């Protein structure tokens, strides 16, 4: 079965965005956290941000590696959408603390849109 070009295009755009965010979180942790709306962090928070950056790098690479196989691309896209939905929930929980509220507000929107786009993409590829 041929790969839907719109679905493939969105999957690749999401993968490149994930690679950019993951690279920033892993290699430029402090500036990435500030750009996401978080204040400064301690060593534990920085380590956790690097772990999430590595996760996004791996997931972005996984999606790219599946770009020519419709079924694999759909699976990778669904996995990425699940991660984005989990991120949206984490940002929702961040709203409870005044120190992370700003990040929570922007993160819910960003992660929610990414999760929705991933689900739309998986449907196009399905």
Describe it for me?
This protein has one domain. It has helices spanning 5-27, 29-35, 43-65, 70-94, 101-125. It is an all-alpha fold and 126 residues long. It starts with a helix and ends with a helix. The mean pLDDT is 95. 29% of the residues are buried. Helix 1 (5-27) runs antiparallel to helix 3 (43-65).
Name a few traits of the molecule.
5 helices, mainly alpha
Ranges where pLDDT stays below 50 over 5 or more residues in a row are none
Shape: elongated
State the end-to-end CA separation. Answer: 10 Å
Main sheet: strands, sense, barrel: none
Summarize the structure.
The chain is an all-alpha fold.
Give the topology.
Elements: H1 5-27, H2 29-35, H3 43-65, H4 70-94, H5 101-125
């Amino acid at each position: 079965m041929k790969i839907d070009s719109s679905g493939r295009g969105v999957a690749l755009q999401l993968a490149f965005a994930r690679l950019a965010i993951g690279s920033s979180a892993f290699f430029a942790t402090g500036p990435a956290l500030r750009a996401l709306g978080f204040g400064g962090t301690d060593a534990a928070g920085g380590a956790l941000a690097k772990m999430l950056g590595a996760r996004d790098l791996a997931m972005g690479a996984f999606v790219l590696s599946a770009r020519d196989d419709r079924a694999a691309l759909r699976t990778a896209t669904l996995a990425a959408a699940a991660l984005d939905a989990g991120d949206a929930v984490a940002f929702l929980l961040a709203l409870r603390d005044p120190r992370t509220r700003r990040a929570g507000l922007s993160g819910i929107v960003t992660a929610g849109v990414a999760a929705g786009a991933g689900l739309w993409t998986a449907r196009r590829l399905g």
